[in-house]
Amino acid sequence: MSDEKDPKQATATSNADGTRADDVTASVEQPAPEVAGPTTGEDPANLPAAPGTTPDPVVVGERRGMFGPSDTGDTSGYGGLVKPILFPAAAVRPYGGYFDEVADALERGLVGSTASYAEAVERVVVDRGELTLYVRREHLPAVARALRDDPALRFEICTGVSGVHYPHEVGRELHAVYHFLSITHGGRRVRVEVTAPDSDPHIPSIVETYPGNDWHERETWDMFGLEFDGHPALTRILMPDDWPGHPQRKDYPLGGIPVEYKGATVPPPDQRRSYS
Amino acid sequence: MSTTQQPHIDTDIYATSAADTAASEGAHVFNAAGGDWDQLVDEAAALHEERIVVNMGPQHPSTHGVLRLILELDGETVTETRAGIGYLHTGIEKNMEFRTWTQGVTFCTRMDYLTPMMQEAAYCLGIERLLGITDQIPERASVVRVLMMELTRISSHMVAIGTGGMEMGATTVMTVGFRERERVLSVIEMVTGLRMNNAYIRPGGVAQDLPPGAIDKVRDIIPLVSRGIHELELLLLENPVLKGRTVDVGYLDLTGCMALGITGPVLRATGLPHDLRKLDPYCGYETYDFDVVTRTSCDAYARLCIRLDEMKQSLRIIEQAVERLGTTPGPVMVEDKKIAWPAQLAIGSDGMGNSLDHIREIMGTSMESLIHHFKLVTEGFRVPPGQAYVAVESAKGELGCHVVSDGGTRPYRAHFRDPSFNNLQAASAMCEGGQVADVIVAVASIDPVMGGVDR
Q: For residues B116 and B418, what is the distance between their CA atoms, to the nearest angstrom?
């Protein structure tokens, strides 16, 4: 079956699948990144529930077929099925738990700094009991400083930065995900996510505020090519200094060689059949 | 071999090359790769240069594996320390993106190879949070996890103390430490089949229930290990040589720890009772009775004392866990058959494998079971899109796992915040201004494991 998708066919297969036809049709016809409407092909009962979450999850991509492998002919008849990949939606007040207090305190803590809360935080997500603040990259240092210094926030420890590469999110391919821990406030945690486009992979460093982030930012530079502006010595840390490329990006191959065993050849892991 | 700039032995393949000399910008380069040390010392002394830069490692018996310390020395005093890492980078995180969620366990267990259960637990708790099944994990599975994690903590601390002692020249500390560790590992081997790299904790529970006799064996070793800990205490705590080497060495106070994000025994040595088992309990740690051990002297001696006392607290937890296992029957895997591995393992005539009952069912009676088994094992299960960060208190500090799913059968991204990686940054702060010999003690008191640092 070709990759050209026919809405009618998708509708038919989704009926066979037991999901609602109109929703799948809507998702097929709408390539826009934000999908309006209450449901988009997923049963809302299966979506992770969080207090105050609006039912408009973010579409970050789409998944074709029902069973994963795409390297063989479509023998199942489900190959034309297109399902959106839905990430948790932006949350609305109240967030629940201590998350409201954290958001309020951050709003107060950013008064008098370079950016207001509304300017700095573009989106708040509450999902699976975790609070995520999507911060515009230019305001990250101000947010980090407020998180550490404001007595009502007092996130003493930044447990490092983890890079994630989303090649499909055009304009925001590279994400830097920071996790903060407050010992003063009994183990509160907050996640700050910052994005940068592949064409301009720069994020301000927060080593000035959290010196312990030094190696973590070097690792993220090494693995993803995110440049942390203002870092005291942004050099490779795990790979050799003259290594070309950034290994954990999705466009960097895993590598490996085929292995022969009892006459059969096992291909390297990235060339094996994927069900994902 | 070039004949230029050979400091001592002409046939030394590790000798300084012309390129080395060019790169060192006129400074003299000596290569201490064996041979006649007096000759080397004489040559260095002839330069009348007090300030030298020493590369300690990456192959050095007292740097805990392949850690490279770049020391700038003024006589015996260390004026600058930099740690060079990456010599054991194996790309585990990248590899995990190409395996199923369950197979990922067998990769992350190899990170910090002294605390395999901790990585497994952090990773599996992360997956369970993504799946939303955290509260469906059977009670018995959580108790078994706690039991295995505390056994692992003891075995890790035993290595920390044992190798730390050996690096100071006390071989008996090492032999006692490893002897006691072996008792713990024999239990772990009995339960999981392996001494390390266990892949025992799985998404949804644990791979296998405890075998018959395991609880008795744990009960047997508790007094033995307790006696071993006491033996170490007698051997170490009032030993004037050890105190001379460790007291006020590797000093890092609370301010320094907070700035550098240090956790674990190094942080608790400053008097702050920070322990994720108390602050942010997981696997039911809030229901166990144990104390968070602290000291206030911020030095290597305090960290040693904390490790000794923490092992005793771990034994307390193990006793309680064993007690509960006797009264908590039940499954050790989540009920959802779309997640739980289809078969329990059993010992057959040709070694360990799927149980015969299960083989009989899938090969003889039920085609559906066979399909289910095949799909779950080859494809794995799908995890709803999103991300989660779960941290556990490893033997070295906060071990965090950030897992991202795009709804597929493989992790989209799995990142581990290894405590050794973070804490090793403190080496500079601990060593600068001290003696060369103190560098060894300070680094040993951080207890870095390069497998975890480099991943």
A: 12
